[in-house]
Amino acid sequence: MLRSLIEEFLLFVLPFCAFAAYLVLRRRNPFDVEHWSPHLFRLSVLGLALGIAFFFVAGWIAPRNRGAYEPPHMENGELVPGRFK
Asked: If you count Cβ atoms within 10 Å of the first and of the last residue's Cβ in the chain, which end, N or C, has fewer?
């Protein structure tokens, strides 16, 4: 679960990092507020859109098991782990 949250956060931050890299390449100071103010809303919306799109794509391409789940159980004195049949 933590990995999923970290991935979503990194996707949200990606547009901000790309814009900071753009500012550095244009030889502007990325720490000046005047460069960020007009673009902050667009970057936030783009980050949210990337996060939501990744959320749906990851759910769409996630592996699915088609069988029934057999929980862990004891068989001949040994623990048999859970599995899909």
From this structure: N
**Could you please report the per-residue DSSP string of the chain?**
-HHHHHHHHHHHHHHHHHHHHHHHHTT--TT-HHHHGGGHHHHHHHHHHHHHHHHHHHHHHS----S-EE--EEETTEEEPPEE-
Query: Which among 14, 19, 42, 40 is positioned nearest to 29, based on CA atoms?
Result: 19
The DSSP element (H or E) to which 27 belongs, if any, is: none
The answer to whether 62 and 47 have CB atoms below 8 angstroms apart is: no
Q: pLDDT tens-digit profile of 46-62?
A: 999 999 999 899 888 88
User: What is the Cα gyration radius of the chain?
Assistant: 22
Task: Record the tokens describing residue 64, joined without a space.
Answer: 């699915």
